[in-house]
Amino acid sequence: MIRRAVVTGLGVVAPGGTGTPAFWDLLTAGRTATRPISLFPASGFRSRIAAECDFDPLDHGLGAADVDRMDRYAQFAAVAADEAWRQADLCAPDPWRIGVCMGSAVGGTTVLERDYAITSAEGRRWLVDPSRASRFLHRALSPSALAAEVAERVGAQGPVRGVSTGCTAGLDAVGHGARLVEDGRADVVVAGAAESPISPITVACFDAIRATSARNEEPATAARPFDRDRDGFVLGEGAAVLVLEESDHARRRGARALAEVGGFATRSNAHHMTGLTTDGVELAEAACRALESARRSAADVDYVNAHGSGTRQNDRHETAALKRAMGRHAHEVPVSSIKSMVGHSLGAIGAIELVACVLAMVHGVVPPTANLRTPDPECDLDYVPGTARERHLRTVLSLGSGFGGFQSAVVLTDPARS
Amino acid sequence: MSRAAVVTGSGVVAPTGIGVDAFWSAAVDGRSALRPSVRFDSDPYGVALVGEVADFEAADWVEPRIAVQTDRFTHFALAAASMALRDAGLDPATVPPFGIGVMTASYSGGVEFGQREIERLWRDGPTHVGPYQSIAWFYAAGSGQISIGHGLRGPSGVLVADEAGGLDVVAAAVDELRRGALAMLVGGAEAPFSPFALCCQRGHGLLSASAEPTAAYLPHTDAAAGFVPAEGGAMLVVEREDVARRHGRRGLAVVAGHGATFTGTDLVRSAEGLCRAARAALAEAGARPEDVDVVFLDALADRRGDDAEARALRELLGVRAGRVPVTAPKTGYGRCYAGAAPLDVVAAVLAIDRGVVPPTPNVDRHRPELDLVTRRAREVDVRTALVLARGLTGGNSALVLRRPEPARQE
Q1: CATH T-level topology, domain B261-395
Q2: Is a pLDDT exceeding 80 seen at residue A84?
Q3: Of chain A residues 193-252, which have a CB less than 8 A from chain B?
Q4: CATH topology identical between B5-246 and B261-395
Q5: Residue A138 to residues A113, A300, B203, B205, B206: CA-CA distances in angstroms?
Q6: Which of A101, A167, A288, A379 is an active site residue?
């Protein structure tokens, strides 16, 4: 029997709003959530803008003890998991058959940096003072704590793992989660990703390589994927969770399958830790293999959710990859980047984008690329500038590309057709 | 056509030796390498001894240009990957472009590089952070650099699930072989020693404070008082058996089955979790508990954790529990987080290949319910090996390795 993973629950914490209704409202309106950084004093940094979540964990069912124990990214994940789990509405599932697969690129950086500053007297002690460290600091060292928090929350006792492939971690976590279902290792997998990278060290990292936008005077329109005047990505934060379920398991209990995770593939460019090839061969290969495992052809694709980070290098690389993977169809299919609105939340964004893709399929609406006013002549596809578009979507391709050379693709399909 | 996954080579960077041969002979001899750190005074962090790779020279393994962009954990991963490819006799240039990928398990990332850069930020200001922090600190540095270094463009990934992730990643690599990859480089390496990283580890409360090398890491004894943290790890080449055979590469062991469960931080509950993981792994391997010839223990050296592991084995093996040899070579070099299980997998592969079970160094008077191999290595005809690993946040994983069937006449 072929086992398939369908989506039966969605949850999201994103800049601009907590919960899928607020998130979808932002995307379809084409509004942007990018603004001056308020989470720490950012004067002295090259890039001083970000897409931040207005988030109070106590408003969303977390207690004081949870807040003490969890870093901000884990709090986002817990809230997104709660929303997805409520929607899936499973009745007494076997805990040993529930798995978790959660992605993050930089993990517990917020707590690590806070405690580093305290224990090192702001960088003056190499031999940091352990007596000043918080009780839960050990849970910040590895993003394994993220999957564990989600597992404890939903009562999962099956396979629980984290994925940390940098900026493709969100796609990869959902892809690996779907495989746990397909391979019979679990019947239900809570899959997703979370990130809270808006802290001095991460902002400084991207400053150092000029990857982020320095359009500090125009924060609302700073993220401009595929636009001639783009100058890098805008850092974001957030989390998204999808409940994946074996299709017969969902059908038997009468659960609505919102989409099927039809295919997933990842390839490495083996080229450069941050640089991309101009031809996009590896990203195209990932897209083709993901389509193949979803039993779809390039011509079936109704929408491409682009990585679309808004760096010159990425946008051209991705455009080349789409042409290579899809031929003429690349010019006919709508391609958009929601990073223009919610920023680039590193490991989280792939999962946030997959939630956007499922919502796009459910509502029959393609979210736009905001801030795209003057197209880059090198980028000549239909990037859905400015305004959302109605379209019936049966096959959606979501792409990701990240540091380390990782290139990933997930294909979502209409479960009714499978 | 056989689609079994076989291990055809491995590379090791361990406190007891660099390279498979040095590691194995130290393991068989039961040598110990637990010492005070030469990098910094670890006493303020409640740790007197560590397992450090004393004689590792990055320049022997990593191009100077790459060495300055990377942390020590990536140096280890690069060295182990090169050794594994050479050990297997596999030249990636001879494989189709997307045929080989790399997957690593990670726990702490590039902590020493990271602490130097974050110190510059906080002491000197944001413009003093260097351009390589973004690629040296994150958990994916090992997989990324290995893929670039060897031109591996196949499916790649990075798993984080503490020590258990070191087994999960081997299973994930085998899953990629089932989905079309021809060979995978898989494993993990850690270098978790900077003052701040050790300050973080202190919080889990499982580190041994002992300053006596022969008494610091004694799992499954009444003197168990935590584990000695270590650096190092291993990479393995796993291939489709038919591909390996066609190219004349010998499969040393079959990666036959995997199981994983989660029971949270209450170690008492890990008994049921480990037992279920082991049962799932044996079922996937098409093996029965009676088939298990040796068990490589997780060996946490925490009273509740050891009790739970012993209980899991009693439940799994029944009356045979006291008769199946079990071992924990890691008591000789410490527990290197996501690198620990890959080292155990290498030891299990060699135990199958050479018919020898290495001992558990320093452990003498262990509790009687398990047949712990102590003092000297034991000759055992190992056809099926079970490797166990538990993660600090609550994962329990099991991997089953089996001796390959002899090649059929064709």
Answers
A1: Peroxisomal Thiolase; Chain A, domain 1 (3.40.47)
A2: yes
A3: 200-201, 203-209, 211
A4: yes
A5: 13, 47, 5, 9, 11
A6: A167
Looking at 3.40.47.10, 1.25.40.10, 1.10.10.60, 2.60.40.10, the CATH number of the domain B5-246 comes to 3.40.47.10
Does residue A137 belong to the interface with chain B, where contact is any CB pair within 8 Å?
A: yes
CA-wise closest residue to B358 among B389, B383, B379, B336: B379
For the stretch B124-144, pLDDT in tens is 999 999 999 999 999 999 999
ipTM of the modeled complex: 0.97
Residue A138 contacts B, CB cutoff 8 Å: yes
pTM of the full structure: 0.98
Q: Is the dihedral of CA A262, A267, A272, A273 positive or negative?
A: positive
Residue of B nearest to A166 (CA): B140
Q: How far apart are CA B410 and CA B406, in angstroms?
A: 12
Q: Which of A160, A201, A405 sits opposite B395 (nearest CB)?
A: A160
CA B23, B27, B30, B33 dihedral sign is positive
What tokens appear for A112 in the block? Answer: 């690590």
From A384's Cα to the closest Cα of chain B, the distance in A is: 31
Cβ contact, residue pair A164, B197, below 8 Å: no
How far apart (Å, rounded) are the C-alpha atoms in residues A396 and B400?
38
Would the pLDDT of A350 be above 60? yes
Q: In Å, how far are A33, A212, A217, A384, A386 from A220, measured between CA atoms?
A: 7, 14, 9, 18, 13
A73 reaches B (C-beta below 8 A): no
Sequence spans of domains, chain B: 5-246, 261-395
Nearest to B234 by CA among B348, B386, B401, B394: B348
A5-108+143-408 CATH, one of 3.40.47.10, 3.40.50.150, 3.30.1120.10, 3.40.50.1370? 3.40.47.10
**Residues B285, B291, B295, B298, Cα dihedral to 10°:** 40
Cross-chain Cβ contact B122/A117 below 8 Å: yes
pLDDT one-digit tens code per residue, B256-292 = 999 999 999 999 999 999 999 999 999 999 999 999 9
Which residue is closest to B150 within chain A, CA to CA? Answer: A270
Closest CA of chain B from A380, distance in Å: 28
